[in-house]
């Protein structure tokens, strides 16, 4: 019996349906394969917030398995302050006022961990304008937020440290056209008698005493040409008419190609020291006055500065004789013991000459600090100082050494955080 035309059409239709079902099956298999390999989470919820689809990465990021994944269970994990912050934008997207919803916020997973996620959602609407479903992606951006937070905290700590230091701190950017201050702290402005807004261009050089201007300019030019440290003492005539003595010390910062791009430095008001030196020179015959001024100078040259509760800095300035070495040791040990400091930084940037007495004082201080359970760090090691220490065979093997105070402070903070100090 031959088949009727209707039977042939039915068979052909069945064949096409089978082919379509096979194609659909292969398409679904490809979709699931692709979504299982993508590094971001993919989700699809209906209008009621029920899960239509989530991939494995979605569950890994949110901690919600497919059986528990829903809009409500997801929303419960969002930090409350982020819910308040994001509510207007999300509601606007639900009403079709925005092409899509995009945001970063925190979720508290059921395993107790908090993660930052970046969510993108697109909403589908029917002809009547009612939302029918929404789908999108989820990415874990926790590491980026933690890195950004760590950077902000580090910058804030650096800013606070620079403000707490009893010296002016500055940063000078160099270009072919000019040198300009990119950062100065409050103390820098206080010493010069100008505001932060006025700290630009050649603000410092404009205030230098005419008799010192040539020498100061030569010091800066020599440092820039040789890409080396700049150190100069000079007088300033402040806008209010005051005459002040300052000491400027600046360290060069080079780029990867060895080109000089900026100077980082300190500015210290040494007016009192200069005045005392003049008094001492004029009153050599008056023993009592000389002794009083010597004590004053000694006290000024052995300050103990708390950087944090666990880090202290003692900048040494001038000459270190046996008597002053004892005072340094006494002040340092007393400060470390009373504060419970874990890192004590001895900065020899201002030491006039590195000799056997200074080297012995440093070694003794390091050993004594170690007995108190703290770590001694040495900063301000320039080439001539390092050479002298080697020639004197100074036993500073147990001390961390750095060329700048900034590097020493950074090391101390890392050591404290890592528990090495």
3D architecture notes:
- The chain is α+β, with helices and mostly antiparallel strands and 421 residues long.
- It folds into three domains: 38-140, 2-Layer Sandwich (Beta-Lactamase); 165-269, Beta-Lactamase (2-Layer Sandwich); 302-418, Transcription Regulator spoIIAA, CATH 3.30.750.24.
- Helices cover 47% and strands 26% of the residues.
- The protein is built from 14 helices and 15 strands.
- It has helices at 5-37, 56-62, 71-77, 80-94, 142-164, 186-192, 203-207, 210-226, 271-282, 287-301, 322-339, 356-371, 383-391, 405-418, and strands at 41-46, 51-54, 101-108, 114-125, 131-140, 168-174, 179-184, 230-237, 243-254, 260-269, 305-306, 311-318, 343-351, 375-379, 400-402.
- The protein has a five-stranded antiparallel beta sheet, with helices on both faces.
- Strand 8 (230-237) and strand 9 (243-254) form a beta hairpin.
- Helix 9 (271-282) packs antiparallel against helix 10 (287-301) and helix 11 runs parallel beside helix 12 (356-371).
- It is elongated and about 130 Å long.
- The chain starts with a helix and ends with a helix.
